[in-house]
Write a structure and sequence with these properties.
alpha+beta, 4 helices
């Protein structure tokens, strides 16, 4: 089920432009982190406060049909805004290339988090560097398909 409502594009030019190109090409273009070959996905979510539709490009970390959303914010000491969106409204839409599906975001903890964190760092090693920059444990959400 597609999320409905008013779309509020990112205030960051590079994010807004990447999402526009990604969606306009059905995921064939702007599908990597700018300046790299590292693949991204785009997650459509609802704003925690505004209720408006937001679109967030994140690194592609997938295993067995489930994805991770790693709230690293480059190792900053605070969570990215979308973290709060996922907590308040866990139903999200994820686009990986041309494939769009609905997922439920679940914040991970304990051994399950440790297992997925290891997978995240193995997929994109920069996450490990980000964790060293902050004292907060970087939150990760498991995005599981909604039947």
């Amino acid at each position: 089920m597609a999320l409905q409502g008013e779309y509020a594009p990112s205030s960051w030019d590079w994010v807004r432009n990447q999402v526009e190109k990604f969606e306009a090409s059905d995921g064939a273009e702007a599908n990597t982190l700018p300046g790299t070959d590292d693949p991204i996905i785009v997650i459509t979510n609802r704003g925690a406060k505004s209720g408006k539709i937001r679109k967030t490009p994140l690194m592609r970390v997938e295993r067995d049909g489930s994805y991770l959303a790693v709230a690293s914010k480059g190792g900053a000491d605070e969570h990215p805004v979308w973290y709060h969106n996922f907590v308040a409204h866990p139903e999200v839409e994820l686009q990986d290339g041309p494939v769009k599906k609905t997922y439920r975001a679940r914040l991970l903890s304990g051994a399950e988090r440790a297992d997925w964190w290891e997978h995240a760092v193995a997929t994109w090693s920069t996450y490990g560097e980000y964790q060293k920059k902050t004292e907060r444990e970087i939150p990760i959400f498991l995005l599981e398909p909604v039947a």
